[in-house]
Specification:
The chain is 35% helix and 20% strand. It is of the alpha/beta class and 282 residues long. The chain folds into two domains: 8-70, Helicase, Ruva Protein, domain 3, CATH 1.10.8; 92-281, 3-Layer(aba) Sandwich (Rossmann fold). The termini are far apart. The structure holds S-adenosylmethionine.
């Protein structure tokens, strides 16, 4: 017996039920993954709700659902993640950009308002989401840096996609500041900040797909942030800013680690958690 082709609406409803035990957002996942299989947007999917899905597209969609049931993040299945005002290419070589990291972009843009053509360094850049989002909205010269050559390859894909003609983006493979030279008006970072204990607790299910180096910040979780804070003022112009995302309880240890830097402010996220810190070179 031939199976009759399913309609978009039926597939979304059925898949929502199938994903209930595997995702906190089963309907959203079903819609995004079906939109991907049909090579349309989520909005485009809503306009096709009563249409039948081809056998090939349904097969592809089913393969996506099997991956999702293995807890693979939707962003790795679609190779896309929205961040700030753009969609970034992602795969397992990089951390999937998180919405809370957008606070760093917003704060940096407010600092850049009065300093056009500033030199910006984004260390621990991963997909390049922070530096590239800032460059999209502000006219700056950008250096993207990461210890992982694989992450830099992904950052290059995003740079080519968002700035096809720009010659103002450089890429440096570097263990923090080791291969960095020159001084910058602004340095941004979202360093790894999970402790050994956090890694045991959180790197299960979805996090297991992301690169471990993107999470592990040393035994206490603060080691990489402390190293950055020790060196960053050597790479800042006088009066320059360093904006960094903070780990859990990250603001508790900030006062003791100042080194040629003044803590300007700590930015809270919408749930009142200290999310990022802004330092100024003194
Ligand atoms: C939390 S992820 C942040 C990625 C990206 N900036 C974002 O916000 O989505 C941390 C990044 O730091 C990089 N990293 C880890 N240790 C590093 C080191 N010692 N020097 C430079 N980069 C490092 C990892 O490869 C990873 O890409």
């Amino acid at each position: 017996m031939f199976k009759t082709a399913s309609k978009v609406a039926e597939l979304v409803d059925e898949t929502e039920k199938k994903l209930k035990n595997f995702s906190e957002t089963p309907r959203l996942d079903a819609e995004i993954l079906l939109a991907k299989a049909l090579e349309t947007s989520r909005f485009g999917l809503f306009t096709k709700y009563t249409e039948k899905v081809s056998e090939e597209a349904e097969e592809l969609f089913n393969s996506f659902i099997e991956r999702r049931k293995n807890f693979e993040p939707v962003a790795y299945i679609t190779n896309e993640k929205e961040f700030f005002e753009d969609t970034f290419y992602v795969d397992r070589r990089v951390l999937i950009p998180r919405p809370e990291t957008e606070f760093i972009v917003e704060k940096t843009l407010s600092l850049l308002k009065n300093s056009p053509k500033e030199d910006l360094l984004d260390i621990c850049c991963g997909s390049g989401c922070i530096g590239l989002s800032i460059k999209r909205a502000a006219d700056c010269r950008l250096t993207l840096s990461d210890i992982s050559s694989e992450a830099l390859e992904v950052a290059k894909i995003n740079a080519a996609k968002l700035f096809p003609c720009s010659t103002e983006i450089s890429f440096v493979q570097s263990d923090l500041f080791k291969n960095i030279s020159g001084k910058f008006g602004i340095i941004t970072a979202n360093p790894p900040y999970l402790s050994a204990k956090d890694m045991e607790k959180f790197v299960v299910k979805e996090l297991k797909f992301e690169p471990e180096d993107a999470f592990f910040g040393g035994d206490t979780g603060f080691e990489i942030t402390e190293k950055i804070l020790n060196d960053v003022s050597n790479f800042l112009k006088s009066g320059g800013y360093f904006i960094t995302e903070l780990g859990f309880e990250g603001s508790a240890f900030l006062n003791k680690t100042l080194n040629g830097l003044e803590l300007e402010n700590v930015i809270k996220d919408y749930s009142g958690i200290d999310r990022a810190a802004v330092f100024r070179k003194i």
